[in-house]
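Thread: manganese (II) ion complex, take 2
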Amino acid sequence: MKFFHLADLHFGKMLHQIPLIKEDQPFFVEAFLDAVDRYKPDAVVMSGDIYDRRVPPPEAIRLFDRLLTGLAERDVYVFIIPGNHDSAVRLSHVSGLLSSHKIYIAGELTRKLTRVALPDGDRTVVFTLMPYLFPAAVSEVLGRDDLSTYDASARAVIEAQEIDPDAVNILAAHQNVLAGGVPPEHSGSETIIGGLGEIDVSAFDAFDYVALGHIHNAQKVGRDTVRYAGCPLYYDFSEINRKKDLTLVTVRGKGDIRIESVPVPLRHTLRRESGTLEELLDAGRKLAGKDACYIECILRDRHVPPHALEQLRDVYGDALIHVKREVPEPEFSEDENARGEGQEELSLEALFNRFYLERNQELPDGCQEAAVRKILEILDRHGSDYILDPRAVPEEESGEILSEVLSFAHLNAHD
Ligand SMILES: [Mn+2]
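Output below.
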């Protein structure tokens, strides 16, 4: 018996301004289905965060549909749990019906977890599906008032299960699991909602393999057979040096489990360039026509040259998705900053970009640009003491950018 362990697909996620649902996630789904054809697993386990949001966009739902249909056509068992990003109810919609197609999706937490026993030669392999849990939900379901920590809650849920000690027991879970107080290595693209929620790995001692989701870097936790699969695509530049392999688990017997990394092609890899603007522009010209990648530029000039962003965009094109600034000593005088080096007339937008870069050490994301342009237009028309109505701003997530623009406007009002 062998199965693929996936987690943290986050269909619908953005990588800076890039909607990965357009090319990268569909490419991954097809590559994964090819891997299923090649390795012929008996099952696929997906340990939570199927979607990036509780109410996923239609494209993300279509892609999940494509993945499930592709797996059903290949006649493999599919075991899915909701993560902290998923809505358990939405994710498990028509799950009763799907179970007749070997697809099992755990919904909201229940006292008895979804449990599927599969014969495997002369032994039984049991898959137990534990949805993302938190103390309040566990207390309610088990009718207890003594569970305040995630660790105690997870232990209480596992104690309430009948676990056959002779079977090979596999658990799917989506939690923050530590080994003896040592936290897993985070990637930077996780959103930890509702506190850290630590559970010690010993809570899972009854299981032969624990297929974890939640932490986006693939790694084991304590023993080799408690593992995070990691997100299958690059969801943050901090993951740049990590391989994005699939985890293939082979059950050879009780206590005899083999873990392999299986490479899978990606539509885009990540690339990071670092240097002064001139160095970055040189590097960019040499890169033209190379492999498909998303690029982050780290700008190391002491003063940000005017039109830095525009020049970088000209050379790198759409591949450039993030610019940040790192200088050895980040001190600069307000005076110099306000005037800059060149005395040429800059557009309000270019001035704002420079102001934002100095304050935040990175440029606003492309998806915030529409918001910035709109706000600057309004300020330009009405003067900088105009009190902005946040409802006039196009993007709903423009709160932070709005406050940056207002600081910029106030600073310039004193000139
Ligand atoms: Mn996640």
